[in-house]
Amino acid sequence: MNVTITPSSLQGTAQAPPSKSYTHRAILAAGYASQTTVRDALWSADTQATARAVDCFGGAVSRADDGTLEIDGFDGRPDVPADVINCDNSGTTMRLVTAAAALADGTSVLTGDESLRSRPQGPLLGAIADLAGEAKSTRGNGQAPLVVTGPIAGGEVAIPGDVSSQYITALLMAGAVTDEGIDVVLETELKSAPYVDITLEVLEDFGVEARQTADGFSVEGGQSYDPVGGEYAVPGDFSSISYPLAAGAIASEDGVRIEGANPSAQGDTAIVDIVDRMGADVDWDREAGTIDVSSAPLSGIEVSVEDTPDLLPTIATLGAVADGDTHITNAEHVRYKETDRVSAMAEELGTMGVESTEEHDSLTIHGSESTLEGATVSGRADHRIIMALALAGLVADGETTVEGTDHVDVSFPGFFGLLEELGCSLERQS
Ligand SMILES: O=C(O)C1=C[C@@H](OP(=O)(O)O)[C@@H](O)[C@H](O)C1
Ligand SMILES: C=C(OP(=O)(O)O)C(=O)O
């Protein structure tokens, strides 16, 4: 599907979708447990991939009409899957499930779509091999399809911290049910660190102890996943909140209210401060979980995305509207996502008349030298590129068509419906 956006002024209330990161972890943690009710779960293409993996490992995930998930876990170590596990587009699923597969007494095969089959898995495969499992890329290039044979007993592994924090999350979640536990030693500085904080929070809520150490992270073996009261509730998603928040900051004189914005370990809560620093009128009531935002002239800022890679596309669009330069730094790991998002945003915003300077580790958007013009742009089969370009379309001169918009179902299936509810005039073409 393509979506054509006519520049529009927005107003109204947006409900934050549930967190994708928390939902993935809750579904897999419930798999490691015996029986869990997961409330307010995100049901998107990516989280359904994790639910399918839990089914493949011998668990059963069912969804009630109100969206609540009832999960019968495989309770400890997974069964050997009867079929290939297809992780579709989801990096989180592939990393977390690869380490889970190394616990099974036999061989698992994992694959994904073309994008996922081009993302780096090598360091995690190396870690599993160091733990005396077998983990191979069928093409020998560190990318899926993957063949993983367990069971691992645990031990110490060294792993880089600057490719994906998901390797560490995966090892900590699996390590709890090994015999010996897993000590993860970081070989380089950790990027995307708040995502490991999310993992530690979810593990604690499931009664599993894991901790940060002087040189990495550690989890004891022989633990059971046992959520308090057999239930877990997922908080709102701040990566997703970044879109209505940025939309309000650039295209709403009358104001947008976002509900479900309760504080949690998500690093992407930083978007509230970023929008504020750029000059929008923003107020976050943390107790009520509401954010009110309205537009004002924006100015460029310098912002590091070391901890918050998923915010880069949103910040790039804000920069295109702002006066002056928006310098986005520490962005190398943003190139390893569903697409190389640094290049994708530079090129697609470029098609809309935006000047930028791309370096390996940074992207500078020259807002003052840019005139945002409506154009036909590619969503690059990447949910965050699609949503960020749609935001640009709200304030461009003329209509903007974003191609291949179906992929928003990865994290924010209701995104275009929400834009319409807020007053955006758009047309869908199948
Ligand atoms: O663990 C997670 O839930 C995620 C970690 C981040 O990836 P990296 O750790 O690979 O940067 C982030 O980009 C991704 O959207 C979700
Ligand atoms: C990179 C993302 O997710 P994943 O790594 O799970 O594919 C994302 O949601 O932006």
Automatic annotation (TrEMBL):
SUPFAM superfamilies: EPT/RTPC-like. The active site is at residue 310. One of its GO terms (molecular function) is 3-phosphoshikimate 1-carboxyvinyltransferase activity. Its EC number is 2.5.1.19. Keywords: Amino-acid biosynthesis, Aromatic amino acid biosynthesis, Cytoplasm, Transferase. It catalyses: 3-phosphoshikimate + phosphoenolpyruvate = 5-O-(1-carboxyvinyl)-3-phosphoshikimate + phosphate. Signal peptide: none annotated. GO terms for biological process: amino acid biosynthetic process; aromatic amino acid family biosynthetic process; chorismate biosynthetic process. Phosphoenolpyruvate binds at residues 20, 91, 119, 166, 341, 384. It is an enzyme of class 2 (transferase). Residues 7-417 form the Enolpyruvate transferase domain. It is found in: Cytoplasm. InterPro entries: Enolpyruvate_Tfrase_dom, Enolpyruvate_Tfrase_sf, EPSP_synthase, EPSP_synthase_CS, RNA3'P_cycl/enolpyr_Trfase_a/b. 3-phosphoshikimate binds at residues 20-21, 25, 164-166, 192, 310, 337. It holds the Pfam family EPSP_synthase. One of its GO terms (cellular component) is cytoplasm. It comes from the Archaea. Monomer. Belongs to the EPSP synthase family. Catalyzes the transfer of the enolpyruvyl moiety of phosphoenolpyruvate (PEP) to the 5-hydroxyl of shikimate-3-phosphate (S3P) to produce enolpyruvyl shikimate-3-phosphate and inorganic phosphate. This is 3-phosphoshikimate 1-carboxyvinyltransferase. It comes from Natronorubrum sulfidifaciens JCM 14089. The lineage of its organism: Archaea, Methanobacteriati, Methanobacteriota, Stenosarchaea group, Halobacteria. The gene is aroA.
